[in-house]
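Deliverable D4.2, example record:
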Amino acid sequence: MSIPKLVLASTSPFRRALLERLGLPFETASPSVNEAPAPGERAERLVVRLAEAKARAVAAAYPEALIIGSDQVAALDGAGSEQILGKPGTRERAVEQLTRVSGRTVVFHTGLSLLRAGTGHAETICEPFKVHFRTLTPAQIADYVDREQPFACAGSFKSEGLGIALFRRLEGEDPNALIGLPLIRLVDMLAAAGVEVLGTRD
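Output generated by the structure prediction step:
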């Protein structure tokens, strides 16, 4: 039985590097999806919707493939409302985000979807991961932002780099989810689709 083509519907170098760890051949494709949240849409629902939308956005080009879509947002809870923290884009916004999360807990919601393009069936989940931030001084925040420039990262940090110095504690089932692709859940999804990561090599 031949293994179906595997496609990652993302141009993120972080997600590509994570998927490479599984040792499976795959291609990447750039999905064209509007990532703006709908009015009142909560983080968990947003990432589930976008993860599947990204997978479906490239399905026409890969009609027989297994397509992986993923999306992530950070959410800061407070006063009964949820504040979604997106990618800062600029130094000023990164400093503002890290100032806001200093000493608090942020939940990173990562949506993961595996689409069987041939049938149109998608399995989609949300993997949460909690980050408990240290209380940070303005000098520490500025130093971190200037050294790592995490402008394209939700929450304004790179956990695989110097960002680890920002944290007091991490809490979740899959640390890969924090970087952007929950590999533990993905391995289960792939197995259900007939693709085993282990035990299939000659």
